[in-house]
Amino acid sequence: EVEYTLSSGLGTKTVYAYLKDMAGNISPEVIDTIELDTSKPTGNSISINNNDTYTTSTSVTLTLSSSGATKMCISNTSTCSDWEDYATSKSHTLTSGLGTKTVYVQYKDAAGNISEVVNDTISLVEKLTVPTQSGTLTYTGSSQTPSWSNYNSSKMTIGGTTSGTNAGSYNATFTPKTNYIWSDGTTGAKTVAWIIGKASGSLSISPTSLSI
Question: How far apart are CA 4 and CA 37, in angstroms?
Answer without folding.
Answer: 16
